[in-house]
Amino acid sequence: MKLLIIGGTGKTGRQLIKQGLEQGHELTVLVRKSGKVKVNHPKLRILQGDVLKPETMTAAFKDQNAVLSALGHKRFIIRTTILSRGTANIIEAMENSRVNRLVCITSLGINDSRFRLGLYYTLFTIPFILFFYFQDKAKQEKMIMNSDLEWTIVRPGQLFNGKKRRKYKLGPKEGHYIFTKFISRADVAHFMLQEVQDRKYLNKAVGITY
């Protein structure tokens, strides 16, 4: 497939690039700074653009079969709208380019998965550290759900840099109210690439943990 990856310089995005190339896909990666992608491959194209500046990213969506978004940032404590504004621009660009399939990573603990990231996150991390970030993620999800795209929202548990096991739990009720469930970025990428083709969770938000 011809896949556009957004957020390819992040840790999950790097796994999407690595595994996408291993699977033989033709990848376009949209990045703000092209030098941050340290991979050279005949099926990899790097385009410089900013999701907050729609005019810089239009070309990236041309002739794509699907978009994989691992969009994120590190501005957690201050009020932010980067995810929701960026996603609004992604949706508009997809509609204008007639690209219908979107697989986007968010997180457990958002909207109807609230409290499912465990007590530590529910009572401390989200309200005191990630409040604005998760608030923006919630808006991001609702924008995707209200769009006319063929979307899948992927809600991982706590991410870590483990190996790809290819064995994980999936479902709308995944996660735990008391204990924090974990998942490797490699397995999240594995599922996203699988789902973009299988479409098992079309127009659904699905949790993923071990």
CATH topology: the name is Rossmann fold
Distance between the termini: 28 Å
Helix content: 25-40%
Overall average residue pLDDT:
96
Write the CATH homologous superfamily.
NAD(P)-binding Rossmann-like Domain
Q: What characterizes the major β-sheet?
A: 8 strands, mixed
Q: Segments where pLDDT lies below 50 for 5+ residues?
A: none
Topology as a string of helices (H) and strands (E) = EHEEEHEHHEEEEHE
Number of strands: 10
Principal-axes shape call: globular
Structural class: alpha/beta
CATH class reads Alpha Beta
Give me the side-by-side strand order of the main sheet.
3-2-1-4-5-6-10-8
Number of helices: 5
Q: What's the architecture in CATH terms?
A: 3-Layer(aba) Sandwich
Assembly context of the chains = single chain
**Count of the separate structural domains:** 1
User: What's the alpha carbon Rg, rounded to whole Å?
Assistant: 16 Å
Strand content: 15-25%
What features would you describe in this structure?
The protein has 210 residues and is of the alpha/beta class. The protein has one domain: 3-Layer(aba) Sandwich (Rossmann fold), CATH 3.40.50.720. The chain is built from 5 helices and 10 strands, in the order βαβββαβααββββαβ. It has an 8-stranded mixed β-sheet, sandwiched between helices. A two-stranded parallel sheet has the order 7-9. Helix 1 crosses helix 5 and helix 2 runs parallel beside helix 4 (131-145). It is globular, with a radius of gyration of 16 Å. The model has no long low-confidence stretch (mean pLDDT 96).
